[in-house]
Amino acid sequence: MKHFLRMFVQVCLYFYCKCLWRCLKFVVRKLTGQCELQRICYNTKPGAARTMKIEASLKGSKSKRLQTSVNVHPDAIEKTIDDIMELKRINPDINPQLGVSLQACLLQIVGYRNLIAEVEKLRREPYDSENPQHEEMLLKLWKCLKPNSPLKARISKQWCEIGFQGDDPKTDFRGMGLLGLYNLVYFAEWDTEIAQQVLTDSLHPKYREVTKKELSQLSKAEWEKKKFDKAIGYSFAIVGINITDLAYNLLVSGALKTHFYNVAPEAPTLTHFQQTFCYLMHEFHKFWIDEDPLDIMEFNRVREKFYKRILRQLQNPEMALCPHFAASESLINM
């Protein structure tokens, strides 16, 4: 019986999506004199809410030309807009703003797809110690984070001071390839003061502020023990590579569309992605302190909880992960 009901519901949903919804759109167009794309652009403010509705409308269209419009090359967007206007029988002279709005949405949609490809390419490129550019970036990371402590040798235990696992960081980049290094260098170079502070805190973890309620429930001896036990740090570079993986998953899953469509007026770029990484690093650092993990073995639990929190935030179409970093000011004003 349950199986029958489930099948019946699925059939009803299919019928609704394929027939009733299109009939409803036809009726609304006749009543308003506007197609769905016009209604979205005229009734939804610019940003993620509008772009995601436009994307869904184009992908769900019965017209192949509209379905493929979200996959065109950036140079073909203007021609694609003309094709859409012609297909929908919309006079561009009477509706000049519609073309502008659709172009902005398509730039974001196509740009997001291209950003995934660019990020994926970096992720798949392994770190090569024989490549001078790779080595130069790695040394720049050290200089930005430890400007007053010269690196004594390329292969050195000093790398552990910024959170790598051994004396040669190249082995730690295997999971995220060059993408992890790119993100760490961007963070250290453009938000140097914050990056250095996060590094210092990771080595010498701060205690979380204790509420009056917590104090009232613990004796002085209990609190001193609790405070000592829970002052847990982490490996800065390794966590940076791990947060790169988190940002990558958010990007590929489409969760970051909300953020990028709100902060990038046109196509989101690699710089936008790197700035998002800066935000996530800073927020994770604060989250780690607030969580008070018992030991580093709780890292995966804390990371998963943090990931779910970010996902919940990105479900809000108004959400923009705007960090209070110096490097973000130019992006916010774009």
TrEMBL record:
Single GO term (MF): GTPase activator activity
Write down the PANTHER family for this protein, in alphabetical order. Answer: ELMO DOMAIN-CONTAINING PROTEIN 1, ENGULFMENT AND CELL MOTILITY
GO cellular-component terms in the record? cilium; glutamatergic synapse; Golgi apparatus
For this chain's UniProt record, which GO biological process terms are given? cilium assembly; protein transport
Q: Which gene encodes it?
A: ELMOD1
Origin: domain of life: Eukaryota
This chain's source organism reads Taeniopygia guttata
Name this polypeptide is given: ELMO domain containing 1
The chain positions of domain ELMO read 133-314
